[in-house]
Amino acid sequence: MRLRNKPWAVKLVQEHPESVLDRPDPEKQIDWSQRFADCSRPLEIEVGSGKGHFITTLAEQNPDKNFVALELQVTAAGMILRTKLEKKLDNLQILCADAADITAFFAANSADTLYLNFSDPWPKTKHEKRRLTYKTFLEKYKKILKPGGQIEFKTDNSGLFSYSVASMNNYGMHFDFVSVDLHHENEEIVAKNIETEYEHKFAAKGNPIYALHADFGVE
């Protein structure tokens, strides 16, 4: 969902180039060692971070890891940045860019985990290639993830979930966890789950939340 333009958010992004890479040139590789204090830490990426509740909470809970919020909308990037600054999250960077260019921004075998939370379902067949679990996106994720690196996916859209399971299975991925009602799993799983803004909204309406964890294996 496209957010309304918020001038303060755009201005905030412009004022903090040390925290936000705003539409960088895909032809120029990003030196993440200059963006994080310690690049030896595990790197986790959320593709499509929205307002950022999930990724900022994750970064706050895991100071021993580095995180990148990849978000296309500048207004959303500004909202994430505001929380980052308020919570002083030095282990979080914001990349305002198109996910289609993800392999240009991250080196091969550099990420440990990739999160896809409530991605646009693009329900029309003619838009299949835009779905973030389409085979060309999976190919890109495989390149940037370390061997054994994991994709964690959540959605409230049953159609997108079924499509994603089939797409990942056809790509030869291994499933470590699959749920068609995440919020009613055992207490340990529910306790570990960090809700996104959309997830809280949909779950409050009684909608089931679908989730899976999958990896490409170790070749």
From TrEMBL:
Family membership noted in the UniProt record: Belongs to the class I-like SAM-binding methyltransferase superfamily. TrmB family.
Q: Which domain of life is it from?
A: Bacteria
User: What sort of enzyme, by top EC class, is this?
Assistant: transferase
Function according to Swiss-Prot or TrEMBL: Catalyzes the formation of N(7)-methylguanine at position 46 (m7G46) in tRNA.
Q: Name one GO molecular function term.
A: tRNA (guanine(46)-N7)-methyltransferase activity
Catalysed reaction equations from the record: guanosine(46) in tRNA + S-adenosyl-L-methionine = N(7)-methylguanosine(46) in tRNA + S-adenosyl-L-homocysteine
The terms describing its cellular component in GO are: tRNA methyltransferase complex
Query: What EC number(s) does its UniProt record assign?
Result: 2.1.1.33
PROSITE patterns in alphabetical order: SAM_MT_TRMB
User: Do the record's keywords include S-adenosyl-L-methionine?
Assistant: yes
User: Which InterPro entries does the record cross-reference, listed alphabetically?
Assistant: SAM-dependent_MTases_sf (IPR029063), tRNA_(Gua-N-7)_MeTrfase_Trmb (IPR003358), tRNA_methyltr_TrmB_bact (IPR055361)
Pathway the protein acts in? tRNA modification; N(7)-methylguanine-tRNA biosynthesis
Q: Which CDD domains match?
A: AdoMet_MTases
Q: Does the keyword Isomerase apply?
A: no
Assigned keywords, A-Z? Methyltransferase, S-adenosyl-L-methionine, Transferase, tRNA processing
**Region described as Interaction with RNA: spans on this chain:** 126-131
Q: Write out the residues that bind S-adenosyl-L-methionine.
A: 46, 71, 98, 120
**Binding positions for substrate per the UniProt entry:** 124, 156, 196-199
Name this protein carries in UniProt: tRNA (guanine-N(7)-)-methyltransferase
